[in-house]
Design brief:
This protein has one domain. Helices cover 3% and strands 39% of the residues.
């Protein structure tokens, strides 16, 4: 298996993927790779100068503020966005393609799509690293940039982990779609997952009937911009379209053990899918 298999609809890798958010004129394989690391098969997600997503392939929608590549695993929303479900994702920094932690990075999320296609929706939860964005040019990040933070819909940090070289971070986020709560389990390397936060109440937006079964699970690498002094202060917070990004960009993160389990029994599985397997797929509903 290789990253370019994502461009072949009949490949095993492609069948695990619902959609890839990527640069408008490039192939999926330009931003994806497959790497073996011990017992794990890792999906490498990369961003480059060309990683500018244009929703609907419309130039006027291009997200020039971000550099992003997102992989949306193929899941059955009727099963994974209802009841109690646990979203597993492990990740490791790519030592050959390091991140610039003066920027912020989104690593995973369940996004409630915004009615405006060119903006970023709310997140049931997300996993964030690096610096928090501020329109103030001199304000320092309130969170330690050298940490990975798991946050609720209101961006409240539920748990944080220090970023260390070549460390495998395992996370399992339990979402109670009825009781509207989040629980976080985490570990490093081969250590067993342990509950580190929650259950904690999430935003009422999650259980708004208008949002039922609309969430999209993203494993991703979204690089937030730095504020542009040339932009009016009240425009700088439009991070999707505004801000500064360095050129000659090439950064990456490895992902593994991506799957969803039924959490109704109140237990979180400590190990991932069978050794050497690709990310687990919950069959997608037939789409018209």
């Amino acid at each position: 298996m290789k990253g370019s298999d994502a461009d072949n609809p009949s490949s095993a890798l492609s069948k695990l993927i619902k959609f890839v958010v990527k640069g408008q004129k490039n192939k999926r394989g330009d931003y994806l790779s497959i790497n073996s690391k011990g017992k794990d098969v890792e999906l490498g997600i990369e961003i480059k100068d060309s990683s500018i997503f244009c929703p609907g392939d419309k130039t006027e929608n291009c997200q020039h503020g971000f550099r992003r590549t997102d992989v949306l695993p193929a899941i059955d929303s009727t099963k994974t966005l209802d009841g109690v479900t646990v979203f597993h994702q492990s990740f490791r920094m790519n030592p050959q393609l390091p991140l610039n932690l003066t920027h912020g990075y989104l690593l995973a999320s369940i996004e409630l799509p915004n009615v405006f296609a060119c903006t970023l929706g709310d997140h049931v939860f997300d996993i964030f690293a690096g610096s928090d964005f501020s329109s103030n040019l001199t304000q320092k990040s309130p969170s330690d940039p050298k940490t990975i933070r798991i946050r609720d819909l209101n961006s409240k940090v539920l748990y944080s982990m220090p970023i260390k070289n070549d460390t495998l971070y395992n996370t399992a986020i339990t979402v109670d779609w009825v009781g509207n709560s989040l629980m976080v389990s985490a570990s490093e390397g081969d250590d067993e997952l342990k509950i580190v936060a929650g259950p904690l109440e999430n935003s009422p937006k999650v259980v708004d009937p208008a949002n039922k079964l609309t969430g999209e699970w993203h494993v991703q690498l979204i690089k937030f911009p730095l504020p542009n002094p040339a932009d009016p202060y009240d425009k700088r917070s439009d991070v999707v379209h505004k801000g500064l990004q360095e050129s000659n960009l090439h950064e990456g993160v490895f992902f593994s053990n991506m799957y969803v389990e039924d959490g109704r029994l109140g237990k979180v599985k400590s190990s991932g899918p069978p050794q050497g397997s690709a990310p687990h797929r919950v069959p997608e509903r037939a789409r018209s």
